[in-house]
Write a structure and sequence with these properties.
The protein is mainly α and about 150 residues long. The protein has helices at about 10-45, 55-80, 85-105, 110-140. α2 packs antiparallel against α3 (about 85-105) and α3 runs antiparallel to α4.
Length: about 150
């Protein structure tokens, strides 16, 4: 067998992977369906304003988390480690969250323009770039072939 050829996975392994995939998708489906009534409940019951405690701790902590995610993405990328995919997607998601919270929490204040500009010119483009790069890497990945039967 050449170095580029991988050994075909066993039928037991393929069945195990199918079962894990099915259970994961069932869990995500139940969570998504359950989130609908929860979101509606929050829309009707949350106050429109709230006095926040530990504002500085919250935002500095979030930015430290974002910094660690970016640093991990860079480090894993420089080392050509496949974990860069997870780090890049996580960083992209954190950037989208950062943009959302910056803008939505600044609505009705003069700071909304600065927050919107930062979201549109920095955070969202960087998030899109990272996710686009990950999608490009996934296209290059070689996945084990599975029989062409419908996966339940």
């Amino acid at each position: 067998m050449s170095e580029t050829e991988a050994e075909a996975p066993s039928p037991q392994l393929l069945e195990h992977i199918r079962r894990q995939r099915r259970h994961t998708l069932e869990l995500l489906t139940v969570c998504a369906v359950g989130l609908v009534p929860w979101t509606i409940l929050l829309a009707f019951t949350l106050p429109s304003g709230y006095t926040v405690r530990q504002w500085r701790t919250t935002w500095v902590g979030f930015d430290v988390l974002l910094l660690l995610a970016m640093a991990a993405t860079a480090l894993l990328g420089w080392r050509r480690h496949r974990g860069v995919v997870v780090a890049a997607v996580s960083t992209g998601a954190l950037l989208v969250c950062d943009a959302w919270f910056d803008v939505s929490l600044a609505l009705g204040t003069p700071d909304v323009w600065w927050s919107a500009a930062l979201a549109v010119c920095v955070e969202l483009p960087l998030a899109c770039f990272l996710i686009h790069r990950v999608l490009g890497m996934l296209k290059l990945a070689q996945w084990p072939s599975a029989p062409q039967e419908r996966v339940r």
